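Input sequence (150 aa), recorded before submission:
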Amino acid sequence: MRAKISYAITAAVLLFYFVLVGSRGVMLIQTGTLLTVTFGVAVLILPVIGLWFLWKNTQFVRKANALATELDAEGGLPVDELKRTPGGRIDRDSADEVFAKRKAETEAAPDDWRSWFRLAVAYHDARDTPRARKAMQRAIALHDGRSLEA
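Predicted structure, token format:
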């Protein structure tokens, strides 16, 4: 729940920023000189890119959460079997062991979105965020019936 609140606050702050920057871009364009119009258009590009990025990330999170809900209903969410340090951090060797299991499971069933979801969780636990995201994108694509290169 804490992550959802943090995400919502961050998204709201970003939206406020995009509106503020966008209004400055419009004001520059309204000035009407070649220089200010050029700068105004350049300034408007920033909120457009930001809104696109925020939209894509929000869609990704929504779809990943939907998969988690579906997998939970099936009783297929990965069990947290990771050892932790006294400070609460995941033990690296423990994460590597679980990752090896998840990787073997995914290699055995490469077209199963469930195995890709669990592999994404293992990548995340191993602190490999880029690969975790790619594995989750693969799980989403498989779930939606789309083809995605590995």
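Checked by second reader. Residues 34-74 form the longest helix (41 residues).
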